[in-house]
Amino acid sequence: MREYGQEGDSLVPQTLGGSTDIGNVSYVLPTINVLFGISAQNKYFPHDVRFAAVAGTNEVLKQAVTIGKGLALLGWDCLSGDRSFADVKSNFEQKIAKAEAA
Question: Name one GO molecular function term (predicted).
């Protein structure tokens, strides 16, 4: 994401509400769950009531497009780069086997 001028940022220390829809799928195949705060100044999360006020701004739209580009490049890398999907899946299966053995 640094290639797009985005630096990684820790989550604001607080209790986050909500959940993902990934559920048990992540035990069957590799998944990714992306969470990004919107608005560099406010860092609101989707389950925050203040989120709606800034969600439709141009600044946030640009952030969402940037995140989408990064995810697309990650997918492309898994399909065509040094880290093929087979490598990702193999690593995933090893971690699941290790977790089940524990």
Answer: dipeptidase activity
Q: Print the domain residue range for 64.
A: 2-101
Looking at the chain, the whole-number percentage of residues with pLDDT higher than 70 is 70
Residue 71 has pLDDT above 60, yes or no: yes
Q: Is 73 exposed, middle or buried (0-12, 13-18, 19+ CB in 10 A)?
A: middle
Using alpha carbons only, what angle is made at residue 14 by residues 34 and 68, rounded to the nearest 5 degrees?
Answer: 20
What is the value of pTM for the model shown? Answer: 0.62
Q: Evaluate whether 36 touches 96 at the Cβ level (below 8 Å).
A: no
Cβ contacts of 37 within 8 Å, gap of 6 or more: 9, 11, 12, 43, 44, 45
- For the chain, give the mean pLDDT: 77
- Please provide the distance, in angstroms rounded to a whole number, between the alpha carbons at the two ends of the chain: 34
